[in-house]
Amino acid sequence: MSEYIGHLINGEIHSDKSQTQAVYNPATGAVCANVCMASQETVAMAISSAKQAYPAWRNTPPAMRAQVMYRFKQRLEENQDIICELISREHGKVLSDAKGELARGIENVEFACGIPELLKGEHSRNVGRDIDAWSELQPLGVVAGITPFNFPAMVPLWMWPSAIMCGNTFVLKPSERDPSCVLYIAKLAEEAGLPKGVLNVIHGGADVVNQLIDDDTIQAVSFVGSTPIAETIYKRASEKGKRCQALGGAKNHAVIMPDADLDNVANALMGAAYGSCGQRCMAISVAVAIGDKVADALIDKLKPQVEALKVGPGSDDRNEMGPLITSAQRDKVSQFVAQAIEQGAEVIVDGRELVIAGHESGFFIGGTLFDKVTPDMDIYQQEVFGPVLVVVRVDSLEEAVALINRHEYGNGTCIFTRDGQASRYFSDQVMVGMVGINVPLPVPVSYHSFGGWKRSLFGDLHAYGPDSVRFYTRRKAISQRWPSGEVKDGTLFSFPSL
Amino acid sequence: MSEYIGHLINGEIHSDKSQTQAVYNPATGAVCANVCMASQETVAMAISSAKQAYPAWRNTPPAMRAQVMYRFKQRLEENQDIICELISREHGKVLSDAKGELARGIENVEFACGIPELLKGEHSRNVGRDIDAWSELQPLGVVAGITPFNFPAMVPLWMWPSAIMCGNTFVLKPSERDPSCVLYIAKLAEEAGLPKGVLNVIHGGADVVNQLIDDDTIQAVSFVGSTPIAETIYKRASEKGKRCQALGGAKNHAVIMPDADLDNVANALMGAAYGSCGQRCMAISVAVAIGDKVADALIDKLKPQVEALKVGPGSDDRNEMGPLITSAQRDKVSQFVAQAIEQGAEVIVDGRELVIAGHESGFFIGGTLFDKVTPDMDIYQQEVFGPVLVVVRVDSLEEAVALINRHEYGNGTCIFTRDGQASRYFSDQVMVGMVGINVPLPVPVSYHSFGGWKRSLFGDLHAYGPDSVRFYTRRKAISQRWPSGEVKDGTLFSFPSL
Amino acid sequence: MSEYIGHLINGEIHSDKSQTQAVYNPATGAVCANVCMASQETVAMAISSAKQAYPAWRNTPPAMRAQVMYRFKQRLEENQDIICELISREHGKVLSDAKGELARGIENVEFACGIPELLKGEHSRNVGRDIDAWSELQPLGVVAGITPFNFPAMVPLWMWPSAIMCGNTFVLKPSERDPSCVLYIAKLAEEAGLPKGVLNVIHGGADVVNQLIDDDTIQAVSFVGSTPIAETIYKRASEKGKRCQALGGAKNHAVIMPDADLDNVANALMGAAYGSCGQRCMAISVAVAIGDKVADALIDKLKPQVEALKVGPGSDDRNEMGPLITSAQRDKVSQFVAQAIEQGAEVIVDGRELVIAGHESGFFIGGTLFDKVTPDMDIYQQEVFGPVLVVVRVDSLEEAVALINRHEYGNGTCIFTRDGQASRYFSDQVMVGMVGINVPLPVPVSYHSFGGWKRSLFGDLHAYGPDSVRFYTRRKAISQRWPSGEVKDGTLFSFPSL
Amino acid sequence: MSEYIGHLINGEIHSDKSQTQAVYNPATGAVCANVCMASQETVAMAISSAKQAYPAWRNTPPAMRAQVMYRFKQRLEENQDIICELISREHGKVLSDAKGELARGIENVEFACGIPELLKGEHSRNVGRDIDAWSELQPLGVVAGITPFNFPAMVPLWMWPSAIMCGNTFVLKPSERDPSCVLYIAKLAEEAGLPKGVLNVIHGGADVVNQLIDDDTIQAVSFVGSTPIAETIYKRASEKGKRCQALGGAKNHAVIMPDADLDNVANALMGAAYGSCGQRCMAISVAVAIGDKVADALIDKLKPQVEALKVGPGSDDRNEMGPLITSAQRDKVSQFVAQAIEQGAEVIVDGRELVIAGHESGFFIGGTLFDKVTPDMDIYQQEVFGPVLVVVRVDSLEEAVALINRHEYGNGTCIFTRDGQASRYFSDQVMVGMVGINVPLPVPVSYHSFGGWKRSLFGDLHAYGPDSVRFYTRRKAISQRWPSGEVKDGTLFSFPSL
């Protein structure tokens, strides 16, 4: 009865139903579709499709490749309502949030439009007498991307537009939890003129991922997800001698300085902690208050707001927060909360008992707020990926930075202050890849790159932006000298230098 | 009686003689020194020294760090004769070749002098209303380099000057075959003002390498050597979740087009194939002649030159070629030659019987030339790392490129031609990282980067030049917004976009 | 009866008919419209409109400004037929040529879309201890552009999209000969969301130009046209202390080497010399043959092709060449031809007597070919801007380069050869801004910049591409240090250094 | 009896004494040397020397040119005491100040060492099918620099090292007030290996300047000095169709916010206002206090410090401030002070009566401080170039910015605050080229560029740093396509596009 979601291979939807998996509407708990899980043959077919599309696409001038991106941007904008509904239906996030996500994804398409500028190599006349040298950034071949459920539209757009603009062809394995919008978007790309086979989409689980990584045709692997899987993928790709960038989890701290405007801070934290039900790798999950006075006042301001959170189905845009992605995830978050209470955290708002009338089977949980959380508690150490904000109290900025630097993750962080010196000390010393100064979710714009430090990212190059061009290309260095007819060259046995 | 070569840790020579290994003069076969092999404690001490030196060095302004490099360049130039003698004595290469090597190493020091320019991040005003963003390239911490015997001065200079100019501190493990010059150079760096502990040098074998890779303090690993070890190191470092660049072996083809001036080609090949006794990862070991006419004429020109090669101790600058690094390597090269003959290659010059009067115990072998080698022979498939040049005959440029692209290695290559179109086809299509157009050894100058393709390099960023700055730094993206006192910010639950 | 073409000021068409001038259809010689010539008040109004639009536009984030460009590109593509008809009707060029022009103009719009990337400043942490520095490229304010008749769509698009993306507002004075398409295009920009007043278009002659240059509000002047006017404008703007880039005339030489394929060369020269009736500042007007053999063969190939040129109204796409822009220009070209014959040039094809049936009043002239032209002749020294190609014979490439370098202009040039060395010598030594190697019209793509040398360009920054961003912005250098509360700073009377 | 200071032409000192001018020791008022003023023939000889040196220098690989700069830096450092004595003797500044000046000049030499990196052009493979394009930054030829008395060592080093590293040759006309150190420095460059004729130094006045500007060989003119002369030079060079950058005067405001630490501010202002006797184009001459409370407190702190200033000969390093450059300048400053009092400014400290025992004939004047200066007073509007600081009182930051933006100059400025928002508002809105945030003299480091806005700079490119490379080079754009033998190209009459 429900729809079957197939793979996109060589421009065709390929629906082998040998193995399928239910896709849920998290707001109702109902199955809304079934997604085909790729067999080994299907994966091989997708890779082969990308391989065959490669030579012609590689040789298409970058400025011509960019024309596809311009039209693609336009089609994304024209169809944003449909895309956002697909996002909200399968992921659960509220529509306005889906729109925010899509807008950031479109930014990445815009960045990819600029590929003729971004692919420029460096040219040096006369590196030696009559010798010129230059570099080119040539495509790798077929590359793969594996993306998470929490940004089903945006994260794939971090990867493949940049990758294919560099001249590669792509096999994308999006999350099997909310696969519809990525397929829809891929079709828009084809309508925009993307040749068949340049972008292929397949669904599946760990087996599919492993097959992608192991296949000799795949030249590079980009991953975004949790840290344990990121690490596994990084090791496996490296074991195959491949380049890999694998982005993992986070525990993002916001530091609140005594000079910060606490009304602003509370408002900012509400969005950053509870938006998208906390299922963002850039969500703020720890508020580090400098001094008890700040902490007390902050709790006073946050408590009524958390209690007043409008939770409900994402399709109703009056809601501020939707459900979690699965019932399993809801249970896991509940256990985190219970454990935290057990370990001595002071619960200020407990969202576990929330029931949404008419959506009793939805995977909802209410916003939860803890005070006096300490670094030894599980709820501090681990990524909860739910609507839980914990307040940790420290005495100084130095102590806050040391705390953050001791955490295993280093994805995002933020400081609230008016003070230039505090912000400079913080941004210089904190061992975190993305830093906000009064910016609660410091996701870099598309023309800067995204990446965490420590165990939040494996690899050396960050996602999207300038780094992505370097990741998706191989440098070729060319040295050129033209012989002059008259002069005969002698033999140089020694190593050549100026 | 012979000297003991110790480790450089925190500015002091540390000579634990618990385990030592002989260092030979390859021209005489005699032991000229003993090198201390680091114990586990010694390695730990070196890492600890680097770790302690890190905070102060990281916070030293790049322009001040650069002052050390300027003085270091000067001291290298003033002491080049001493350095080249050390190189020649332990490696065997002729002095003029050592000078060429050192000159290219000094180039890397010059590149490192430019660090204030190279470390520039990108700044964007108004990424959103009143939001600015910028990126910084911050140092990693303590990083390690592992370098090969064949360029004992140059390859370490590919790594640590760039790494420490980026603000890192360094543990270097050079080849234990010819360790003296690297230690001497490190002392020059200290004389130039490098603070103690910023650069540490330890000697050892696989155990030391593994300890370096496994130690949690080490943030990144750079390696240059053979492909099997490069691959092992890349996997092991990645297994530890670290960034790694590992440069391996090569089988560099030179394509000779019918329009090339064969006198020039022969001269160029003599230097590129037999210089440094073929022990260069950029040496030309395969000459691909387009057509039998070219091949026959080329053989005619090469044969007398190979036979006339002046082979002898590197200390005598009239020699063109010195010995191999070890007797084992000489035996291995001899076996390659024997096997090639057995497999049907036509030997034109056989250098195996060469004896140098007065240096009968030296590790010498004569220049060897093969014709009619085919891709299935071991001598074609494997890296010989000796003075052996093989000629392969093909019918067209297209065939030559296909041949090269099928080889497992893709380090360097070169085409000899006068024709613009041939050179462009070649440089565009060949799957090799460094391409020469009438440049037999297309080692990029220091301000471009060095790296092969396929199994000649594991990792995504190349060695030295612009890529090295990206390899030795972590990108930090900062987004900044200052609150205006009057305006209160509302909560944004949706994902932030323009 | 005919239409009045007004000014675009603050988003409104402003048609003061106090002074007007006829606009001709060059194919028929008939007046097709009348263009309003701006009074002093009108010019002031346009400047004032731009000034008022400036603050809000300056503060709009670049990524939001870029959205206008994306939509503008789309509208240009959707309306390309209308635009090309307007170009062809008033300029005379054939429709396919108008399409080529527009396509290159749209490329500049694409470049402007990339403004968030292009505006990036440079950020340096720790230029001194705890001092950071960065640069910003801030807009200038109101800037002006003055553009020629020969590319009525493209040349304005070289200027204003880049200028306004940098945050400036613009007053454009296009050629009064063919003003319709630029107005139409400006309206498309408004439909794409460009705020009123950001782009203003006024028509007029020298008085209007002078008023624009003299007005204190105008911060910079871009000009493309003939060298005498370019020079006048450069001097006048500089006299007012303003920055100015003024692109002038050309005499573009193509060098034909003996190894060139003459069929290809002849074909290439036909398009480059006679396309757009020779009215391009990048047209080839001098063919420099190396040796008499090349010259004779070239003449043999060109003669029948010139004679067979299909000349007629641009609206008929079977035609290869349309009329000149005015009857005065036709007479001037005729005089050049007569004078050349008088001065001893050998006329191979004389196009002066051409009459197009049904278009007897059109400003047509036939393709003309001269041989044995010498550097002392007027037809060699001056820019003809008509369908006249002259062949000059020299004995060597060195002589050809010396010839080109002696000419007062240095806009474009080209060499036809297969030889790498010849091309390198040529591109290195020739004192010309844009060099083609087997590319007859080496107009740089939009992401490189356009500019001639010698008297073909006054100013230091070239048009469009990267240079245009620097031209349309002012660099601001910011040095920042935050005080630490505890430490008191001493006075530094000496000049601050590291 | 006193020494004659000659010209440096083609590596030789050329001393025609036909016209000479006294050089004074400002601390004693005595003539310490006579400088030869160049005749027309001498100027022509210098230009000719530069012209002849050009071709060989242009063709020297940049990396080899850089070797001269490395050695030159070393020689500057070795001889810094001699240079600083020469500076102090003829200019009057205290030795520690001269050392600061020289250190900043050496930074520019360091920047020039990086020329191989800085000269890189941009390379694009496949701008169209099989067409590649790249840009080169080629040298201009012979260029000229004209430099002021106040930084006799540093400002010339802003210009010629960058210019000659780009491949140009140079004619420098330093100030005839203090010409010795620049000649000494030029000789060090020759000792460092600079070929004869690459750098030439001539002395003279307006006639020499005009001859340099007018000579057709000179391709570009760089100037630093007062605004009236900068403007004249800019117009004259532009009149000759040349590129020119002319840096003029300044009136640099420091804004003191209520949250600033006034002890720090007072200390910072003392150095920035009175260092080098106020003879710096980056000197702070206006302190803008936000609110009367700040103003009163600031005056209280400044008054005793100004009164306590140690004034005396620069050769005694205990002094904080030396004399002015000439007696005429001293009289001019005195008149400014008198006029200000007359116009109603409140004099807090009046330095006019200062007499230095033992140096009664020196050109000394004491530090002077005014309060309650208003924008209509001459002392506010004009550049005094003496040790005079005026305090202006305003009510808000917005008012301060508006005040600064109304001033004719826009060279440097600074804000003292701890507040991030104030600093951002200020740096964004202020129409000044160089902005300090708690940095009183925000002279950009050598790898950023130096330049004012408004009437402080004529031209579009700033001095030194990245802009200087663009100023001293001409962009050449090369488009390359190699013909394929089999395919015949058709004629393209339309404008070429993708």
From TrEMBL, chains A, B, C, D:
Residues in Aldehyde dehydrogenase domain copies: 16-478
- InterPro entries, alphabetized: Ald_DH/histidinol_DH, Ald_DH_C, Ald_DH_CS_CYS, Ald_DH_N, Aldehyde_DH_dom, MeMal-semiAld_DH
Q: Which UniProt keywords apply?
A: NAD, Oxidoreductase
In Pfam terms, one family for this protein is Aldedh
Q: Which CDD domains match?
A: ALDH_F6_MMSDH
| PROSITE patterns, per database record | ALDEHYDE_DEHYDR_CYS
Q: Could you confirm whether the keyword Cell inner membrane appears in this record?
A: no
UniProt superkingdom = Bacteria
Please verify whether the record's keywords include Metal-binding: no
What EC designation does it have? 1.2.1.27
Descriptive protein name: methylmalonate-semialdehyde dehydrogenase (CoA acylating)
Question: What is the taxonomic lineage of the source species?
Answer: Bacteria, Pseudomonadati, Pseudomonadota, Gammaproteobacteria, Vibrionales
Q: Gene that codes for this?
A: mmsA-1
